[in-house]
Design brief:
By secondary structure, the protein is of the alpha/beta class. It has helices spanning 41-48, 81-97, 111-122, 151-159, 174-184, 195-201, 234-244, 266-284; strands spanning 21-26, 55-56, 61-62, 68-73, 101-106, 127-131, 164-169, 186-189, 206-212, 248-255. It is built from 8 helices and 10 strands. The strands form 2 sheets. It has an 8-stranded parallel beta sheet, sandwiched between helices. A two-stranded antiparallel sheet has the order 2-3. Helix 1 (41-48) packs across helix 8 (266-284), helix 2 packs parallel to helix 3 and helix 7 runs parallel beside helix 8.
């Protein structure tokens, strides 16, 4: 008997009912401000993941040690941004209702807003840790309040002050940095210095972790729509993931891979490795 071909992320082959973590793609980039292409990230990552091993020598653990489910890519409304966010929210809410960890693969960074909306409903004391090159704190971008350039500001609208912690920031306009300096959010520029202090502060609290892969230096990760020089290395990002993994991370995402801008495939390989290490770290906490 032949079986139908179903392509999943490497190691994410458990049934949904048994799974502890659910990965899914949110292929949406309708508000990308510079170079589009993140809608292709999850599909390409799924295919290219088979260039990796399931085993992590960094953590001496294997994806096959855990029950992981790949929910595929959502069919999102590209003509209606708010509707796409609602679809992401609904799917995330289903995973949370079943007491599993949702791990979303963007897509542009705006997709995080939909997942945070769902997570906040289950965890009213939600805090957000953001690894990113960009502040994403604009009130609007080109007269639009919903944009990957405004996503963290919209999340602040929901959470309020002292709930958002940014690391690796090295790009934004002056008003964004001035607004952050008024203690609306915690911002650590350029790197992950002091991350352990945030981890100590957030012990016992529900945390949403969002990783914009452009936090990495373009020499490591050129395949993104808005590359910013001066970023961190893969090993620095890995250490940051391991540092926060001891927290009560109830949902997470990685976003902003645009595979078409790196024909070598290196950026996709890096994104897949980040997903592997993040998944294992969340299970080893």
């Amino acid at each position: 008997m032949l079986n139908k071909n179903i392509e999943t992320f490497l190691g994410f082959e458990a049934d949904y009912e048994d799974a502890s973590l659910v990965v899914f793609g949110a292929p949406f980039d309708s508000t990308t401000s510079f170079r589009p292409g993140t809608r292709f990230a999850s599909k390409v990552m799924r295919s290219e993941s088979f260039g990796l091993e399931t085993y992590s020598p960094y953590q001496d653990a294997d994806l096959t040690d855990y029950t992981l489910f790949d929910g595929g890519d959502l069919e999102l409304s590209f003509g209606n941004t708010e509707r796409a966010l609602e679809q992401i929210e609904q799917y995330t809410a289903t995973i949370l209702r079943d007491d599993k960890i949702p791990c979303m693969i963007g897509g542009e960074h705006l997709v995080t807003l939909g997942a945070v909306r769902a997570t906040l409903k289950k965890h009213p004391d939600l805090h957000v840790i953001q690894f990113d090159a960009h502040t994403d704190l604009r009130e609007d971008y080109l007269d639009q309040r919903l944009s990957h350039a405004t996503v963290i500001r919209r999340i602040w609208d929901l959470l309020g002050d002292d709930k958002i912690y940014q690391y690796g920031i090295r790009s934004g306009d002056r008003p964004e940095f001035e607004w952050a300096a008024k203690q609306h959010v915690f911002m650590n520029k350029f790197n992950f210095d002091g991350l352990e202090h945030t981890v100590a502060k957030l012990q016992g609290k529900p945390v949403y972790l969002t990783i914009d892969l452009d936090v990495l230096d373009p020499s490591v990760f050129p395949g993104t729509g808005t590359p910013e020089a001066g970023g961190v290395s893969f090993l620095e990002l890995l250490q940051a993931i391991l540092t926060v993994s001891g927290l009560n991370i109830v949902a997470c995402d990685i976003n902003e891979l645009s595979p078409i801008y790196d024909q070598s495939g290196v950026s996709t390989a890096v994104a897949c490795k980040v997903l592997r290490e993040l998944t294992i770290a969340l299970h080893k906490k």
